[in-house]
Amino acid sequence: MIHHVLLACPRGSEDLSRAFYVGLLGLTEKPKPPALAARGGCWFTGYDAELHLGVEDDFTPARKAHPALVRPDLDDLAARLTAGGHPVTWGDDEIPGMRRFHTHDPHGNRLEFLAPVTAG
Predict the structure, then answer these.
(1) pTM given for the model
(2) ∠43-65-107 over CA atoms, to 5°?
(3) Please, which residues bridge with residue 45 across strands?
(4) Cα Rg for the chain, rounded, in angstroms?
């Protein structure tokens, strides 16, 4: 089992991160331990996963490497992201039994969301 995935973010971008990850994606912010909070960044939980954003002074967004989060309401999420200014790119059927799309967070980090294909 993986405890968390970490993505980098620029220093001072915590409020922008919260607006996206909590406000748009619906994740919950998890308080960082005091010893780590001084470093900046923020932690989020949801979708049976934990996602940490860590400050990187020489920040470069992750354009290829990315977390892939399972989300049952894929169409609703895609609509919210698009309406919020974060276009989505739907994947084809390369992963049998899964629907998926990619988008980017406000820092340019690539994210994937997927859901099992349901019969019907």
Answers:
(1) 0.93
(2) 55
(3) 28, 50
(4) 15
How far is it, in rounded angstroms, from Cα 114 to Cα 69? 6
Structure tokens at 40: 């900046």
Q: How far apart are CA 73 and CA 61, in angstroms?
A: 26
First to last CA, the chain: 32
> 48: domain range?
5-116
Nearest Cα residue to 102 out of 90, 117, 84 = 90
Contact 50, 3 (CB under 8 A): yes
Between CA 52 and CA 114, with CA 46 as vertex, the angle to 5 degrees is 100
Report pLDDT for 25. Answer: 96
Q: Could you give the number of structural domains in the chain? A: 1
CB 54 within 8 A of CB 41: yes
At 41 the pLDDT is 97
pLDDT band for position 94 (50/70/90)? confident
Beta bridge partners of 111: 103
Picking from 62, 55, 21, 51, the residue whose alpha carbon sits closest to that of residue 36 is 55
